[in-house]
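Following up on my earlier thread - several people asked me to post the actual chain instead of describing it. Fair enough. Here it is, all 572 residues.
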Amino acid sequence: MPKEKYLRLGELLVKEGLLNPAQLEKAISVQRQEGGRLGEVLVKLGVVKEDQLVAVLGKQLGIPYFSLGTGMLKPASGQGLEQLIPHDFAVKNLVLPLSRTFKSMTIAMVDPLDLILIDNLRKLTGCDINPVVATRSDIVRAIDEFYGRSAMLDKAVKDTYDISSLESATEAVELTDQELSLDKLIARAEEAPVVKLVDLIIRQAIDERASDIHIEPFKDKISLRYRIDGKLFEIPPPAKHLHMPIISRIKILSKLDIAEKRLPQDGAFPVKLENRIVDLRISTIPTIYGEKVVMRILDRGSVVLDLNQMGFDAKQLEVLRKAMNAAYGLVFLTGPTGSGKTTTLYAMLNEIKSPTKNIITIEDPVEYKLEGINQVQVKPDIGLTFAAALRSFLRQDPDVMLVGEVRDLETAQICIRSALTGHLVLSTLHTNDAPQAVSRLIDIGIEPYLLAPSLLLVVAQRLIRRLCPDCKEAYEPSAEQLKNINLKTDLIYRPKGCPKCGQIGYKGRLCIAEVMATNEEIKGLINQGASFQKIREAARAAGMQTLYESALKKVEMGVTSLEEAFSVTLGE
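Reply from S.P.:
Thanks for posting it. Predicted structure:
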């Protein structure tokens, strides 16, 4: 590149305020003595960071700047990019294929002005090249991740399909008949290909932001599915004959009994991933075709315990914070399994915890470990139930108690008594909406005259998928789509799909909620044993927003789609 280009780049860096003229002169002097590119000299001298330099270069050339941290350097899957540009070529030339559309290919490069390289890429791929610029370090890491995982998966699948590399043909027949001895099963599960395959299944699930991995046996195949943002998606599965070795490997990691295939088992094990720990909870059940395994992924690093980022609106947050900062009383979160109740409870504890408060929890299981909070795991087999733990908690001088779930009358009674005697109690119930929580507690045996003075707040919530911000598209809904709904906006958004969201159109979830604070009227209705319909009317009159209304508000804000709002709230 001619020297004038370097000077123009240097001047642009000065204009952007990233270095001063004296620093530029020094870098040019070093470049004259040692050679090389001005940008590399500036980075070497520590004057400019690599990402800043490349961003300015992209701006100067009018070429998009992609970085690893934003997820933009993630090649599209299923397009055979690793075959079009081999690993060795990518490493040697520091290029990364990102996507292909017909005869056009987008490629990340360190030097997008290398016309000879672009011409070689055009001949190699048979496509027109659309270059984007990225830092050298980001491209190196992205190449390692893309080609490394692809190569590992290819080798793992090849090795696992190559039965002769594992056992003799006779033993392979024994495997398909599911008659392996215990010793052989352990040995087979520890073979490198199976180890790699299980590791890759878990790693890919974590990278895809999955919450659960389902491995299910059927007559002629295995089904592998990931639950991403609440929906199950099928993943290309391993071969049927690998079912038992995979299950055995998972059992060994979870310290389960690999010889026991007739009874359900539960276990857990941690996974270290890029300097963070991800916990996996394992559940196995016997089916007619063998054992099914579900692995629940608890990635503490991906969960943000901040009420402000969960989806509550300003008015709901105000009511919520008033209750959770009260000196005493009972706060319930309700909703089905997987609706985010526990995460909301943790976010509440995270906000109110302080050295001046003694906070104790009893959970089944403890999903996330919180600093500064005493967390207890239920162990029914030794008599440590919710009720037993709660009785002990009252002798531990608590200010705040969290009870994972109210499942029986005894637990409910202790929660009520604790709330009436000066403790703040947080817990969960399984009901469809907030007013029904009152009916449920009375149905299991709680006296209305005890419930009315102790209940502060009931929050019913669901999780709704968030539209991908990079590809959502606006449209004007028809009258048929609206179903007589009066939205406060003419344009709403729908999913489209792009590489950043895996072509799904949605990325992440947020909560919709109805927040019912108990006022004097509601307390009076509880005392009278009124139906949940009457309690609902009183709560609505006091300003409670229903789940359906909360979902429609998210549609108006453009963060979710009308179809998603209907599917989560049943259009009620």
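Confidence is low (pLDDT under 50) at residues 1-7, 161-182. That should answer part of your original question.
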